[in-house]
Design a protein that fits this description.
With 432 residues, the protein is an all-alpha fold. The protein has 19 helices and no strands.
């Protein structure tokens, strides 16, 4: 009797992908997914696109009929038509046409109308005035603010968006909204090219990904009426994307420092991004990024703060906390504002709650540091969401920051010509 050794069954392609891509950190697994699932999911999304555009149209129409702000009414009317047209054109083979209709109706047309008429949110005028003040006095802050519109709650870097109007005068191309949009879209386009790759055989070109993001009502509205948070969140996404790609860390640090020089709400990005770099690329890389970020932020903020510390604190610390000489118009009925407005000592209680939430998020970074860009974006979005809800002077519009962070890194903005691969993160070989 001849005894033959029975060949062991070969693992399936999917199993091999799991073993080599997930079981061994840092290895790629191009076949570690079921190619039919994303295709079916994409088909389902295409079939239900009309419902999404119709819901957007309903939101825009409701806003135009209920808001007391003129620029928002203009946006709502234009966007309702654009979204309704996109819903009517929504077909699996016409998805680009419907997205283009939404982009034109929700962004291009209202932005053009509002810029031509000069109607905008008050933030636009504040930024443009701060640019002129920075050029003529060296500080973007009025020394004796008396009215709400006299206050500039942004850090000195935001004044750069008002420089074009201060230098070249009033025109369509010097409107601060145009530069908000340019900065946001440029940052998101670069972030799309540098975002860590996400599993799935199908992908979206970076330009298409940014266009779809721009049609989302929470983004389209500030693009048209003037939202200072868009360039901030654009730089935040770019900083996280660069941190997720590793490298020397310098570029990620510069992006994070630039965001931190615009507004206080970007400062939570620094610990989250640096922890991500420390885990995925090593402590030396994180240290280089920290030096670059702090250098950029310090060079922009500190000279202005030292020139007139009292004015700086009045504008960018006390006023946002609701303790300035005038009340902030940011009064959305979120927990922090409700505490400050209706509870004795509520402002201090809201501030203490804000500090406790920040401490909890900081501890979570030490106990369970994020190891992927998506995890870091989620942690940052959680911290920002808590801060927005707890700060005494707050508004619903600030929620665009966590919304974009959560949504963007779940959407694979990859060039379609490259197959997506599954990357997991390994600790640096040198232990640093």
């Amino acid at each position: 009797m001849t005894i033959t050794k029975r060949a062991e069954p070969q693992p399936s392609r999917t199993a091999r992908g799991v073993l080599t891509g997930v079981g061994h950190l840092g290895q790629s697994a191009p076949f570690a997914y079921d190619t039919a699932v994303p295709v079916r999911r994409a088909g389902a999304v295409a079939r239900w696109a009309w419902a999404y555009w119709l819901a957007c149209a309903g939101f825009a129409l409701a806003l135009s009929m209920t808001t007391g702000l003129g620029p928002h009414r203009v946006w709502g009317a234009c966007a309702a038509v654009g979204y309704a047209t996109a819903a009517a054109l929504a077909r699996p083979s016409w998805h680009r046409v419907s997205a283009l209709a939404a982009l034109v109706g929700a962004v291009v047309v209202p932005l053009a109308l509002l810029v031509a008429s000069g109607a905008a949110q008050s933030e636009v005028g504040v930024v443009e005035r701060s640019g002129a003040l920075l050029l003529h006095s060296g500080s973007p802050y009025l020394s004796d603010p008396t009215r709400t519109v006299d206050y500039n709650p942004y850090l000195p870097g935001m004044a750069l968006f008002g420089i074009p109007r201060a230098v070249f005068g009033t025109s369509v191309f010097t409107d601060a909204r145009i530069w908000f949009a340019v900065a946001f879209l440029t940052c998101m386009a670069f972030a799309a090219r540098r975002t860590a790759q996400i599993p799935g055989p199908s992908s979206v070109r970076p330009g298409n990904a940014v266009s779809l993001l721009a049609t989302f009502p929470a983004v389209a509205l500030p693009l048209a009426v003037g939202g200072v948070d868009l360039p901030v969140v654009g730089l935040m996404c770019l900083g996280l994307a660069l941190a997720g790609r590793g490298g020397s860390g310098t570029a990620a640090g510069v992006a994070m420092g630039a965001a931190a020089a615009l507004k206080w709400t970007a400062w939570p990005l620094l610990p989250v991004g640096l922890v991500l770099l420390a885990v995925t690329a090593g402590r030396r890389t994180a240290l280089r990024a920290a030096v670059a970020a702090l250098l950029v932020a310090v060079l922009v903020v500190v000279p202005v703060a030292l020139a007139d510390p009292h004015t700086f604190v009045e504008h960018v610390v006390l006023f946002p906390l609701g303790e300035g000489g005038a009340h902030s118009p940011a009064t959305s009925p979120l927990p922090g504002h409700l505490l400050a407005a209706h509870v004795p000592g509520g402002s201090a209680l809201a501030t203490a709650s804000l500090a406790a939430a920040a401490l909890a998020v900081a501890v979570s970074l030490l106990v369970r540091p994020p190891r992927t860009v998506r995890a870091a974006a989620d942690r940052l979005a959680l911290g920002l969401g808590l801060a927005i809800c707890l700060i005494p002077a707050t508004r619903f519009g600030y929620l665009v920051l966590p919304l974009v962070l959560v949504a963007w890194f779940r959407f694979p903005p990859l060039p379609a010509r490259h197959p997506a691969r599954d990357y997991s993160v390994a600790a640096p070989a040198d232990g640093t």
